[in-house]
Amino acid sequence: MSETDTIAGLLFLTRLQKIDLRVSAPQKRKPPNFPSTDPFPFLHALVDSYAFPAKPASDTDPRCNPILADLDMLPENILMNIAAVDILLYEQLEFIEKLKRQLEADPERNRGRKVEAKVYDGQLHGWLELPSIAIDESTRQECWDLDVAFIKDIHRKYGFEWKEL
């Protein structure tokens, strides 16, 4: 394994990540607090166009559908920030639970791996990009602080200590 392979596999930090491309946007299970009228129906075609040219062949490919990936295929440190009012909620939670089960099934083999998730209640898909007037800024800051702490932890684990400027 080369040095770049090792570095590339250290961390997966995600926000708003689509985990299962096999299920189209309108068919995704909606959380109970999802608006009765979809606020973003015009985005369905865009969401469903990810990996479009390769889509039929990619339905079994974990690179396009991380939900299919085993823990060994993924970076050893995973943090997912999840919006609770999002059609991606259930696939993201299912993915995290699957990975946690794999961690628990073989703790010796998976020693040192981290799989974490934080669900942000009341937040919509894309909430981190909304202007401050539209969301509670302290929630955005909480997410940012969690991400930075996670990254710093991984840096420390591999011998790099972040120095404040």
TrEMBL record:
GO terms for molecular function: hydrolase activity. InterPro entries: AB_hydrolase_3, AB_hydrolase_fold. Transmembrane segments: none annotated. SUPFAM superfamilies: alpha/beta-Hydrolases. It comes from the Eukaryota. Residues 44-128 form the Alpha/beta hydrolase fold-3 domain. Gene3D superfamilies: alpha/beta hydrolase. It holds the Pfam family Abhydrolase_3. This is Alpha/beta hydrolase fold-3 domain-containing protein.
